[in-house]
Amino acid sequence: MATKKLKLYFTGSIAARDQYRENYNKIIQLIRESGHTIIADHILSVSEKEIGLKTREERLKFHTKIEEWIHSSDAVIAETSFPSISVGYEISLALRVGKPVLVLYSEGEPPSLLAHHRDEKLLCEKYSLQTLSGILHDFLGYVDSKSDLRFTFFITPKIASFLDTIAKRGKLPKSVYLRKLIEDDMEK
């Protein structure tokens, strides 16, 4: 895991907060347990109705605060299982200012606008509550490390299918499985 204390910005759909509350809380809990700071209260404590009742000036002031949080963070974690234009904007802003972004989704496919976006700082991962810890561990290591490299390569559909099966059976991200194979070979 990361060696220095990181400051992370978390975002997710406020409209679907009740539906994904358990997932949001688990993400926040795992980050805090790992000793890092996570800015997330705005997602958990404000309702869509409350936002709608704010004046235009109050909403603009809050928007400025969100931009400050993103700029001051080491990375952004976005739970995107429920589509949200606001979350998409925050992801876009974070990438524009060079922040690593972990896009999490718990069902279906990755967000359609991000699925084919090529940016080394954008990582899209399908997760379950069982695989979440490993995914966050990998992401925090990626954010913290100056020497670790992200390695991308093409694989055949047959290999991709095999990796999907192994990942589901082992309840771990494919990257963790591959890294473990390499580390095991290095120890021999």
Automatic annotation (TrEMBL):
GO molecular function: 5-hydroxymethyl-dUMP N-hydrolase activity
Pfam families: Nuc_deoxyrib_tr
GO BP annotation list: deoxyribonucleoside monophosphate catabolic process
Protein name: 2'-deoxynucleoside 5'-phosphate N-hydrolase 1
